Fold this sequence. Notes:
Low-confidence stretches: none
Number of helices: 2
Shape: globular
Order of helices and strands: EHEEHEEE
Distance between the termini: 22 Å
Amino acid sequence: MKLFIKNIDGDINEMQLEKLFGQFGEVISTKIVYDTITWESKGYAFLEMAKKEDAQKAIDALNGLKVRSLELIVQEAEIKKAK
């Protein structure tokens, strides 16, 4: 299951996100989105977990959790279909 995480502090890296979400199950991939000019974090990421049940546990536990100075927003990612 793919998750969309926003409101991420700019100092958080992909390894730290994987560690945080890895408490709930296997993380397959993590991608923080960066500005292509400044290479600063845009404050959101996509993270894929192996099992839907584990991803739901992570959503329940981490949505609204304050990490550094910001409250994470964690939800299932919307998969856009090609037209």
